[in-house]
Amino acid sequence: MRRTFVLAVLAIMAVAGSAFAIGEARMQGKITDAATNKPIPNATIILDALTGHKVHTEVKADKDGVYRFLILDGTLQYKITYKAEGYAPVEYTFKPSLGETNTKDVTMAPGSAAAPATAAPASGKSSPAVAAYNEGAALANDGKLPEAIAKMEEAVTAKPDLTAGYEALAKLYFRVKNYDKAIDRANKALEIDTDNQDMFGILADSYTAKGDKVKAAEYRKKLPADASSMFNEAAHLINTGKDGEAEGAIAANDKFAQAYYELGMLYVRTQKNADARTNLQKYLELEPAGKDAATAKEMLNYVK
To answer: Do 256 and 226 form a contact (C-beta atoms < 8 A)?
Structure first.
């Protein structure tokens, strides 16, 4: 069985120069100054796993602010932090897409205070907005939330398409329990960035706090958290030899396509070909045009 699996991996590697190994993901992007739009050379990118086993990676951007690196285990949830001397750090959480290159361009604002878990403003034409945003970030980090909110509102007034400002406001309003404002600002961010999972989380939590279970469930379904936790539970059960119970964890929500994909990929890596086929086929039944459909179909060719 191992020889068959090794041959399959070799076959994947021989397809093309850009082929991915099983479970790998790739990351690339460019880091620029929010005020000038010029590249920031030699910025540091730090990757830390938030789920599963420990992963810590540090890489440097080149002189043009461009970075590229390989994520060996793309099945985990990660926090990625961007740092550069003279700039406020930027960080966010994400789950890589397997079988494709994940691109994240980042703008960094001059200063030293960390932005509240969101990227800095992106336009070189918005110095007043950048200044207000940075002041708001510093106030938030000092725990001065009403003052921080006022500055962030000033930032989005100066630049109405400032996604980072709306993201920060949604989170700040949620922290002060002004859920209606949090919902409004989260929706403003989503008008610009339609797949902003942080904002889906704010909306789900805000509607939960307001007692609106229907709307909360609507946005909770857009989040990968349930699929991720289900995958982690299944991985733990499989690692302890409880395959049947792992399948039971998936069955708890038999419409969660991503859970089947993650479990299928796990079975591929552990050479349980029959189980891999079952789960990958189930994923394709539920999401035939899903973001991981191409990878699932490719993997099915190697677990026959």
So the answer is: yes
